[in-house]
């Protein structure tokens, strides 16, 4: 028999864990956005070694499970003398994993900008950095917003993997209380609802950003 009243005593702890999940997701998203931009610029550069490095990175990250990458950061780095906290390890693994996908999103956005705009800017004497900063990247970012939003939501859900390296986020706390009270359905449903709330908020904010950018473009 299901007994959801058991959850009431643990709601404050689950909400606290939800905040940890949110912090983990936001920091990882920021890292992924920044790293993904650098990787995208490397990939579209005319410098072959940089392009090869970007291609290799994307190939490795997209071709291996994120859980393996997380374990390599958390359990592997201490073998070479690099000790990181569970939270920092999770941020690095999540952010650098997302960077590979975000780089491809950025690249698609950059390649969608008409070459005529770049040629016109060059004819006016603008340098490459100025063209990218003032003309290409703002438009590419606007075009990439829907795909970046989907990636952000995926990262939020993937943050549950951090529970496997002892980060006290929503999934780990829910699992702990579920095991203690033998109420797996109740606590996992509660966790699912909290994740649903977070993803709904993320989607709402991203839709607002996309709408504002589309209006400003008009």
Automatic annotation (TrEMBL):
Keywords, in A-Z order: Amino-acid transport, Cell membrane, Membrane, Transmembrane, Transmembrane helix, Transport
Residue ranges spanning the membrane: these are 20-44, 56-75, 87-106, 184-206
The cross-references to Gene3D superfamilies, in alphabetical order and at most eight, read:
MetI-like (1.10.3720.10)
The membrane-topology field of this record reads:
Multi-pass membrane protein
Q: Where in the cell is it found?
A: Cell membrane
- Please state every residue range assigned to the domain named ABC transmembrane type-1: 18-206
Give the record's family classification.
Belongs to the binding-protein-dependent transport system permease family.
The entry's protein name is Amino acid ABC transporter permease
The species this protein was found in? Bacillus songklensis
């Amino acid at each position: 028999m299901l007994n959801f009243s058991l959850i009431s005593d643990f709601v404050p702890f689950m909400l606290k864990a939800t905040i940890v999940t949110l912090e983990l997701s936001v920091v990882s998203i920021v890292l992924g956005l920044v790293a993904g931009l650098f990787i995208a610029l490397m990939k579209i550069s005319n410098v072959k070694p940089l392009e090869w490095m970007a291609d290799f990175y994307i190939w490795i990250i997209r071709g291996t499970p994120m859980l393996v990458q997380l374990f390599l950061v958390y359990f592997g780095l201490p073998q070479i003398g690099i000790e990181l906290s569970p939270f920092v390890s999770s941020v690095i693994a999540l952010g650098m994993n997302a960077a590979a996908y975000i780089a491809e999103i950025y690249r698609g956005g950059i390649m969608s900008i008409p070459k005529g705009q770049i040629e016109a800017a060059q004819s006016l004497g603008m340098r490459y950095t100025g063209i990218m900063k003032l003309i290409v990247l703002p438009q590419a970012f606007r075009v990439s917003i829907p795909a970046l939003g989907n990636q952000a939501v995926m990262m939020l859900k993937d943050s549950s993997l951090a529970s496997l390296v002892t980060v006290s986020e929503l999934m780990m706390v829910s699992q702990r209380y579920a095991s203690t009270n033998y109420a797996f359905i109740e606590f996992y449903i509660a966790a699912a609802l909290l994740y649903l709330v977070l993803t709904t908020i993320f989607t709402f904010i991203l839709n607002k950003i996309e709408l504002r950018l589309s209006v400003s473009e008009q």
